[in-house]
Amino acid sequence: MSQTAHQGLHSERGALRGEHPGRSRNPVIKVADLAWLEFEKPDLDRAEIFARDFGFGVAARTEQELWLRGTFAGSPCTVIRRGRTSRFVGPAFRAAERADLDRLARATGTAVRDADVPGGGRAVGLLDPSGFPVRVVHCGEELPALPEQQPLPFNSGTRHRRTNAPQRPPREPSRIQRLGHVVLETRVFARALDWYLDTLGMIVSDFLFLDGRRDRGPTMAFVRCDRGSVPADHHTLAMHLGPGNGYVHSAYQVTDLDSIAAGGEYLKERGYKRSWGIGRHIQGSQLFDYWRDPDHFMLEHFTDGDLFSSDVEPGWAPMSTSGLAQWGPPATRDFLGASPSPRRVREVVQALRGDNELDPARLLGLLKAANS
């Protein structure tokens, strides 16, 4: 039997007969990547201080907007607009070609409009089944590349790349290279997943299901862009079923493990709260470190993530806390969102009363997975 990218990696062999194929037969378009994420916050000065400490560069700043970027050429990573409260607005995905916007607009009955991004561009605005505004954009001008944080050379076994030269990584912010992925929680997981596959042409890398309830379908999916033979990040979007509709975290690539660790020390010295890390994930394989910003949003530094071409089929694995990492400290209650709060209680009550995909059996299954 031929080996796949998932065998031996905490996954099943693949889909069983009749299970979700993990891709659409005829998607409207195929997006190329995430472009940026959109937030609102009342204090842009505080947001900029954390952003610089976390490792972002500033692409543009006005009284009403803060555009953040990485060192790679391309579009900004994040825009934070001044708002009355702190909230995640939605993601923007990058169209592979300008003509994809026209195709998407015709198929969805929307219009192509100007995109308010540094350098200009065009965009189509949509609404996903969870209620998130989703934009698909084609930028007019790319931001130029910035100087990189250079990876440290390693001595390994008999391979000596470094002699008479000790390692001294500087204590400075991890320099963000690019936006990697966003994770969302939704009460309508199956509907939202199919929308992203059918509308934006994304494909599933890994499904997770509640242990003993695989027959009810997956409850989490790690979704990547379909770029054919060109490898793409294991996941650009991840979604899981839950009592809320909202942002979970976003992830930003840095140079190497020393960049993660030294940057983490820099953040800790400035009083920021680590949520979970440092460790190595299973689905996606990336080295990770999670932090909270002053508005309690979770952000991840990552490096060394998996890249899959389009011919890799989805893996299937049971959902569990122990399945989140190959090594590292135990996942924290903060990372899991398991700390009780009035808001979380309201979300559970509303979800169980509403017309969605969460019922008491699935809620109990999710609680069990969080403690397994």
Helix/strand layout:
Blueprint: E1 33-41, H1 44-54, E2 57-61, E3 65-69, E4 78-82, E5 87-94, H2 98-108, E6 112-114, E7 121-127, E8 133-139, E9 178-186, H3 189-200, E10 203-209, E11 220-224, E12 232-233, E13 237-241, E14 246-253, H4 257-269, E15 273-281, E16 287-292, E17 298-303, E18 307-308, E19 315-318, E20 325-327, H5 333-336, H6 342-353, H7 360-370
Parallel strand pairs: 1-4, 5-8, 9-13, 10-19, 14-17
Antiparallel strand pairs: 1-5, 2-3, 3-4, 6-7, 7-8, 9-14, 10-11, 11-13, 12-18, 15-16, 15-20, 16-17
Which features would summarize this protein structure in a list?
about 375 residues; single chain; about 20% helix; 20 strands; globular; alpha+beta; ten-stranded mixed beta sheet
Structural class: alpha+beta
The oligomeric status of these chains comes to single chain
Strand content: 25-35%
C-alpha Rg, in Å? 20 Å
By DSSP (H or I, 4+ residues per run), the number of helices equals 7
Span from first to last CA? 31 Å
Structural shape: globular
In sequence order, what are the helices and strands, one letter per element? EHEEEEHEEEEHEEEEEHEEEEEEHHH
Largest sheet: 10 strands, mixed
In spatial order, strands of the major sheet run 19-10-11-13-9-14-17-16-15-20
What is the percent of helical residues? 10-25%
Q: What do the pLDDT scores average to? A: 93
**Unreliable segments (pLDDT under 50, ≥5 consecutive)?**
none
What is the tally of beta strands?
20
